[in-house]
Amino acid sequence: MGFMDTLAISASGMTAERLRMDVVANNLANVNTTRTPGGGPFRRQQVAFVPAGTTFAQTLSGLSGDSSSENGVVTGGVQVSGIVPDNRPFKRVYQPGHPDADPQGYVNMPNIDTVTEMVDMMGATRAYEANVAAVGAVKGMAMKALEIGRA
Fold it and tell me: Within a 10 A sphere around the Cβ of 45, how many other Cβ atoms?
């Protein structure tokens, strides 16, 4: 595994976590959205991650100690498999004057919990920071290797 492979793996993590932060921000922005173009309230979204390079041959070559790149493609890291809706039920709130209230006065509100979203945001931030630290460590190792070459 070379320096560039390590950087590519950390970059994939930073890209995935940035998308996760975007989805969390979108969920928080729509916490009170009761009417969407598709009808009904906004449904919370989540990001689904999968390991990058998950074929059997790639996994086997990684276990045997071979390089993590196969034909120039890094087999480590993470990628986003998709943004999936959270299928938990909507919250029902009694607001008889609301334009989207049913005949009993209840409004279906989005299935978003702000505390959960804040925890997800903190997790995405910490994971992004960890990948930045890994990039910094690789950079430091590369600089030390260059210093050895000068001596």
Answer: 17
Taking the C-alpha atoms of residue 47 and residue 142, their distance in angstroms, rounded to an integer, is 33
Tell me which residue range forms the domain holding 107. Answer: 3-150
Q: What is the pTM of this model?
A: 0.81
| Residue found by looking up tokens 């209840």 in the block | 106
* Interval 40-76: pLDDT, tens: 999 999 999 998 875 555 555 655 444 445 555 556 8
Q: How many domains in the chain?
A: 1
Query: What is the per-residue pLDDT across 91-127, written as a single tens digit (0 to 9) for each?
Result: 999 999 999 999 999 999 999 999 999 999 999 999 9
Q: How far apart are CA 109 and CA 4, in angstroms?
A: 47
SS (H, E, C) 77-131: CEEEEEEEECCCCCEEEECCCCCCCCCCCEEEECCCCHHHHHHHHHHHHHHHHHH
